[in-house]
Amino acid sequence: MKDAKRVFTDDTGWRINGESASMMGFDTDEATVYQIRLRHRNQEVRELIPSDYGGVMHTDRALTYDA
Fold it and tell me: How far apart are CA 20 and CA 27, in angstroms?
């Protein structure tokens, strides 16, 4: 993900043992990664997309991805 020219992201609501969670998807021309997490914060995004990422990230969830 960190070396891709562009990354498309999307997320949706999910449940883990009845608790609210998120399924986050990251897609490039080469790979797709899904994460199911209890929390959806910038810290989780940064595990795949570092703060010095030089490509373009396409997302509709600005606050989480904007930092």
Answer: 23
Nearest CA to 11 among 48, 40, 38, 32? 40
Per-residue pLDDT tens, the chain, 67 aa: give them.
999 999 999 999 999 999 999 999 999 999 999 999 998 888 888 899 998 999 999 988 766 666 6
Q: Where are the alpha helices (DSSP H) in the chain?
A: 42-46, 62-66
The pTM score is 0.81
If DSSP codes are grouped into helix, strand and coil, which group holds residue 49? Answer: coil
35 domain residue, yes or no? yes
Specify if 29 maps to a domain: yes
| End-to-end Cα separation, the chain, in angstroms | 17
Q: Are 4 and 55 in contact (CB under 8 A)?
A: yes
